[in-house]
Amino acid sequence: MIKRTRTEISKCIIHKVANKYNSGQNAFSESLVRFDEESYELLLPFLLKPFGAVTQSYRFSHHADVRLNEINKYSSDIFEDDSNEVFIEHSKNIVNHLYEQSNSANIKTGDVIVAYFEGIEYKDVLTEAVGIFKIESKVDFFQTYQDDDSFDVVVQKGISTKRLDKGCLILNSSDTEGTVVLSVDNNQYDAQYWIKNFLSVKYADDRNLHTQNYLEMCKEFSEEVIKPEFGKQEQSNFLANTVDYFKEHESVDYHNFKDEIFEETKHKDLFEDYKQHFEKLNDVLIRNNFEVSDVVLKKEKSKFKTEIKLDTNIQIKIDVDAPDASAEYLEQGYDEEKKMKFYKVYYNTEK
């Protein structure tokens, strides 16, 4: 989603956020971080690398006026006035706003890094970004030290550079829907806390969202309707055919999809009924026509479960990218002598 080849951190500050539920107190820095070369070279990729794999973006939301969204206002002020004083003041406001969302004992305390980036590349354009990162977990590591004429070891806690817990980038870039926001959350113990309550953002209304919603609907339809009604093999066939349709078409037409995927009218009716159920249950609109997002297709198809698990401790895994494999090379039957069902698998060589 972004490129960081020419990105630099121009401002950075670290605070500590407490838990409001437990009546904790935040701790604030009064000055910016002074990096040495080694720490800077470690911190920059640690903060930004996770966003290179992000496929979807968000936009700020608010029930009355999006300009009243706290994070939207603080980041906008920083973009308009890039002085250190404004940056430090609003970095504290950001931490206080995060603190106000910790209404559960499960919300973890931690370090909050607020940074101002220059030279981030988004859609082939260089721009600035305000980054907010929460470090929730720390790891144990050994530290050696010299004591008189020998060396000893002590266990200390520190931040691992392998994984960022939570983070967002507010880009100084917007479209008709508003300011572009990117987010990562690797500790999703409370899905509402970071995305909904703190950032108050929603997915951008684009091909990424439309593709995701449609594929999620198909996955749930296969699990809730096809699998119990027609069996696991038919479920795998449907998922593989769905992936194949998305791969072969640059855009999805809902009616054409039904005609190509389903042979019988009753199956089309079941799909139509489930579409309405899914929209109502999830409060989403499934578009009848939209362009396919290849990056979202790649991500979502990995969630499709095409394994057939048998009670005899045998599993058959069907490739979701091979829509004809199950129908052509897998047969189901019943053995009268053993009084058991069976699958017959055809193949030429083992791999």
TrEMBL record:
Protein name per UniProt: Nucleoid associated protein NdpA
Gene Ontology annotations for the cellular component aspect, listed alphabetically: nucleoid
Domain of life where this protein originates: Bacteria
Species annotation: Tenacibaculum lutimaris
